[in-house]
Amino acid sequence: MPAPADEFLLDLRQVRRAFDDAAVGFDAAAAVHAEIRARLLERLDLVRLEPQAVLDLGAATGHASRVLKDRYRRAHVLAFDMSLNMLRTAEAQQRWVRRFHRICGDAHSLPLRDASVDLVFSNLMLQWCNDPDAVFRELRRVLRPDGLVSFTTLGPDSLQELRRAWAGVDGYTHVHRFIDMHDLGDALMRNGFAEPVMDTERLTITYPDLDALIRELRLSGSANVAAGRPTGLTGRHRGRQLQEAETVAVRGGVITLTLEVVYGHAWAGTLRERRSGGEARVPLSQIGRR
Description:
- By secondary structure, this protein is an alpha/beta fold.
- The chain is 33% helix and 21% strand.
């Protein structure tokens, strides 16, 4: 079989299917997702904003949508996700009075009017998109002037231990491609956002063995859906490959993985002239400048 033109191209139908299948057990398996979501919500404390409409992009089971509705009680909160089953599960987060709306669709083509949203909150969704430029272009379209996008995604140092382990076993793609924060900042500016505030932090996670890691990835919907992934490997062949990868990955009796968490914040506005050297640096404290 010839190699795909882009081994990292994601099959979005498989992405949707994986999250549909994971919806019921997602909360129990997605502790990392919940931790990063909490950290992103804390960063909104720096922002002086009274939105009329809030978009929770990649809402999953609706935990952030509930918190956003509690925080901005007068705002219309839209929980948006590509997985219909995730949005059905999000019903459990609804309150009797302070309810949010649920919309199923594609982040590359939002079914929202121009300039209809004041705040976009997005936790660990962007790495599931093939074209971040298209997503940022849509976010700029639906945001009102001086609206804010606040998001997290994974950077290129994420899962580097797993990437190295599989590289010693076969030539397939086992770990998705993650985009550097500087490239994401450039993409934001290309698509009409003012000087973005970008930073990263690293989280370390341990697992007793490779089976535990793969089980958590599957139950949380984080399946390998890259075009260059292995297909048709079952039975003893697959088991032997897992054992070989585990032998490489285990250190000190456990598998230790790094996540490079990228935080991005940018205001919808007119593009500004970039400083010499092609890079604009803005302190984190300036997130709430508006």
